[in-house]
Amino acid sequence: MFLKIEDLMVKDVITVKPEETVWEAVELMNRQEIGCLVILENEKAVGIVTERDILARVVLGSKHPMKTKISEIMTRSLVVGKPDMEIMDAARLMFKRGIKKLPVVEGGRLVGLVTLTDLVYSQEILVEMVRALEKLSLEKAPKRLVKVVDHFHRIIGISQDPVKMKPSNTAT
Question: Maximum distance among all alpha carbons in the chain?
Fold first, then answer.
């Protein structure tokens, strides 16, 4: 029997409403020691905001966090999983879409959240991940994905040419 997302997911997902400010969201993220928030509207997941979103869209965008609403910076094209999804299918989806956080939805309601780190740490996924990583070209991958893959390589002891591991179009 294969592990399902529901076996690994966090069930008590911290959420915010779209009309809350970035400042309020950051305070909540710091208080809860988390890296993302799922945005709920009428009990439906409508977006996600991560630390990276805040850095890229607020800090680098020179927006005021006390005036900027979450709805202005959240990622609206939400990629979601289902509780009965096998973890390998979730990992493939996350690698394909270049995401590290996957809200889990059932019957239109948010029921959990699983991260790429959660999946990497699950033992069942190791063998399959090795096979997938051997085929994966990271030359044009987002730097954040390269970091996760590099960490995974260190855990399982794969050595690869560091030039191939480094994205060609990003600064270090």
Answer: 50
pLDDT in tens, 46-98: 999 999 999 999 999 999 999 999 999 999 999 999 999 998 899 889 989 99
Angle made by CA atoms 45, 77, 86, in degrees to the nearest 5: 70
* Contact (Cβ atoms closer than 8 angstroms) between residue 45 and residue 39: yes
Range 5-135 classified under CATH 3.10.580.10? yes
Rounded CA separation 133/148 (Å):
11
In 5-44, which positions are buried (b, 16+ CB within 10 angstroms) versus exposed (e)? bbebbeeebebbebebbbebbbeebeeeebebbbbbeeee
Query: pLDDT, tens digit, for every residue of 128-166?
Result: 666 666 566 666 666 777 777 776 666 555 544 444 443
Q: How is the chain split into domains, by residue range? A: 5-135
Beta strand segments in 21-115, E? 36-41, 44-50, 101-106, 109-115
What tokens appear for 140 in the block?
Answer: 């044009």
What is the pTM (predicted TM-score) of this model?
A: 0.72
